[in-house]
Input
Amino acid sequence: MIKKKIVVLDYYIGNILSIQNAIEYLGHQVLITDKPKDIASATHLILPGVGAFGNAMNMLKNKYLDKEILKFSESNRPILGICLGMQLLFENSSEFGFNNGLGILKGNVVELPNRDKKNFSLKKPNIGWSKIDIKINYENPTSIKIIKDLNDKDQFYYLNSFYALPKNKNICIATSKFYDYEFTGLVVDKNIVGCQFHPEKSAKSGLKILKNFLSIN
Amino acid sequence: MIKRNIRIIPRLDIKGENLIKSINLEGLKIVGDPHTFAKEYYEDGADELIFIDIVASLYGRNNLNNIIEKSTKDIFVPITVGGGIRTIEDAKKLLRSGADKLAINSAAVRNPKIISELARVFGSQCVVLSVQAKRIDSQHWEVFIDNGREKSNKDLVKWILEAIALGAGEILLTSIDKEGTNKGFEIDLIETVTKVSSVPVIVSGGMGSIDHLKQLCIKSKIEGVAIADMLHYKKTKVQNIKEYMNNYFENNLLDD
Output
């Protein structure tokens, strides 16, 4: 078996240490980097979830990381995008104006509603723990692997004002609710995994998802 | 009809290396080792943790880096850190130690621009406005700083609206009059804030029983509660609070 080389992209701001700590807790080594050559040699790539969409895309482009991520995804090696990192995988986002994303997944990133169905104003960002409603895509084995060992007690920590709307509904394998509004929680397309929640902050439930992701070859 | 999922957040006030506890933000008592308590709360199902260096704003620096670094190695829930954060550099150090959110009070009152600077660099989701409120008459509260020692001359509601406009993503509201008393929450204070706040509100101060929390949640739309005394002195456990609240709200949906 080839030794895993797990790479987490560094956007310079926010808390990336938690992802490192969680992966090390699971018994793996991890490399935090902003160098394209490290992506080229990785077996697993993680895009963490901190900051604003436009800034993060600019940073990826300036460091020539965007092309390297595309190449990585074409090779069918597993990618995990977390929160913003998941949103970056899509075509574009309306956060702070219109910004193009990596376009690895088809679809766009939009804002959670300001009001509910009865016109009450809703407090954002969406912060807190939610259950996920799972709809497995049996055509994709990765979708089955990623939810291994999850049960209906598992909850995940969300911190978001935006969410992804995939063009192909089948890649959305779990949703959560913001008040009474259902939004995308987890997407899996081939070996590309995106979670809107933070697995590194979701206690034992989140560690299961990270462990499952790292078991994908 | 929406079921509310209120975040249960143990609050650890720290002085030096010790977890401490106060009454009305005065009369400090040492409780124990912060990491031991934090780990226990995590294992028991805490939704988040808050660590506050309660003497930091007096000394002008936050000494929690080591405690946070140690805690984030084996605690995987969001961690808010507060006390003595005055610059982007202070903030960066704490985030690099593993903190997810920063609670600011004194520095924000003295220099409100720090709120927008932090929000611009790290995002609003990272910036928690910590507000310590003391009642001045039946409908007004004043904001205090330096862990309840100094008046700020700022009106509670005006200050909260200003801070949200500047980019605060969450409010941590502490009632000085109720803090450490176990006599129940200051419900009219909390109502006043939840009505005007467009961002989530976490309340703190006065909880003496799970029933206090239930009564509060029936009346007020809070998003979370920060609990110190009841947990530190083992009067209840995080798991008990969550089970009780879940059972109650499973059977009694609230009008929203």
